[in-house]
Specification:
The chain has 131 residues and is of the alpha+beta class. The chain has 5 helices and 2 strands.
Length: 131
């Protein structure tokens, strides 16, 4: 799903952009994913399932989560595998110039959905990782 070849061809551009940002380092990668696959993935986002109610009651209401992307749809599995691949890790390491930890368990990640009337309050995400 990730356009690895396209990203790898422009690595020097991304490294330069990342290192020359004034406020904080970041880079925008257009066409990061294959657009057709991304749109198919979007249309295959599952409907909210009440059994996936979030346990995070402090900062959100009517929030539902699915942390396991591998059993939703083959496109979610492909995205999952691409994001956890050594190839992706190498790209992130080269752009950032830093050692990168990629969480294969997606701690706190996955699909987060809000039902009608939901809200997500101001908060910060984790400042530590359990592993």
């Amino acid at each position: 799903m990730i356009n690895f070849e396209q990203i790898e061809k422009k690595l020097d551009v991304y490294i330069n952009e990342f290192n020359n940002e004034k406020i904080f380092p970041f880079v925008i990668i257009n066409n990061f994913c294959d657009n057709n696959k991304l749109m198919d993935l979007y249309y295959n986002i599952p409907a909210i399932n009440k059994k996936n109610k979030s346990k995070d009651l402090m900062f959100s209401a009517k929030k539902y989560e699915r942390s396991n992307l591998t059993n939703i749809d083959p496109l979610f599995l492909e995205l999952h595998d691409d994001l956890l691949s050594n190839r992706f890790k190498k790209i992130i390491r080269k752009i950032s110039g830093k050692k990168v930890f990629i969480d294969d368990k997606f701690h706190g990640g996955g699909i987060h959905q809000g039902a009608s009337g939901s809200f997500l309050g101001m908060h910060t995400d984790f400042n530590y990782h359990p592993n």
